[in-house]
Design a protein that fits this description.
Blueprint lengths: L3 E4 L8 E4 L40 E10 L2 E6 L5 E5 L3 E5 L23 E6 L3 H4 L1 E10 L2 E13 L5 E11 L14 E3 L5 E4 L6 H4 L11 E5 L21 E4 L3 E7 L5 E6 L5 E4 L38 E3 L5 E7 L10 E6 L4 E8 L2 E9 L3 E7 L5 E6 L6 E8 L1
Antiparallel strand pairs: 1-2, 2-3, 3-25, 4-5, 5-6, 7-8, 8-9, 9-10, 11-12, 12-13, 13-14, 15-16, 16-17, 17-18, 19-20, 20-21, 21-22, 23-24, 24-25
Length: 408
Amino acid sequence: MKRLALLVTGSMLSAVLMVSPLAAQTQGRSAETKRPNAPDQKPAFTGQTRAPQPDRMPEIKAEAVAEDLPHLWSMEFLPDGRMLVTAKAGAMHIVSAEGEAGPEIEGVPDVLARGQGGLLDVALAPDFATSGLILFSFSEQRDQGNGTSVASAKLVPDDRGGGKLENVKVIFRQMPSYDGNNHFGSRLTFGPRNELYVTVGERSDPEPRVQAQDLNSGLGKIFRIDTNGKALADNPFVNRQGAQPEIWSLGHRNLQSATVDGQGRLWTVEHGPRGGDELNRPEAGKNYGWPEVTYGIEYSGDPVGKGITQNAETEQPVYYWDPVIAPSGMAYYNADAIPEWKGSFLVGGLVSQGIVVLHMDGDKVASEERVPLKARIRDVKVGPDGAVYAVTEQRGGGKSTILRLTKG
């Protein structure tokens, strides 16, 4: 069998990418074949990295359902099947079932669209069908620098395919501010009790990144709040003096992937350094190590800190990648359209340029499957039809496409 057949004729809307199962002789081997950046680092347990490929891998068809879109960062399905998308430069659009983007939605606040910053994730409130409430994250310019903020608003569509935001208010700000361009995060995902998890970054530079270990700082954390931006009463640090009460977990680097599983538990994938992307199941009050404990190395080739990969005081990742996939966007697949993926996590890969499928055995990765799409994947969602939708981007900007993945 051919590993990959690419048929492209006419416009991107008619492009069809057929991704076939790998040849039998490669099944059972790791999908990653490149040399690790840190070959002397050893996993803490069997299966923590370079898991084998699954025995059964479906043929996947990928077709463009929307093209020539602005540089997107995220998408979310509306109840009527249309897609609400955020453009990194600071606009929201509603994309019709025919793949056409409506006019810019009015009322979006100013965003700092610089470096890795811009208009980031968007999520529908659990009661969106009656309230119209959406939550969105963005990089915000402030007096003392900038940072990741979360706002709420009522989305009011119009009959022209656009709409407006009403009652816009910033409900939460990652503090302290920092004058930098990198590692804003961020993803928004709701848990089963309508709790909102907000993931952010630690701002990358050596000076601020150490604050990922500081409970008085919002850098390098996951937060757990309500839709008014308030800390939940059972958060782990609510009653600790000097700690930010919104913090759920600490010691994170740059979190751009988050979802909940079939049990309503939070899972994330974060960007590591040069090597060291991590899959975690963040739990209340736990420390995930960065920058004191991590796999991978600095971009310079030097060790990160003391080069420690294990510490009794910090949590081991469920899984890690070296080299990196550069994760962005994540979904839990609980549909039936692609039965081989049921119960798996789907992770967008910027560097790996495709979808990474993590097949689970309990809370461990049993196997890893790669779906090459020859495009940087910024976000991943499961549609109401059970198909998987992937948002592409071009490095440095450019246009985005939304791909629909189905079983071939």
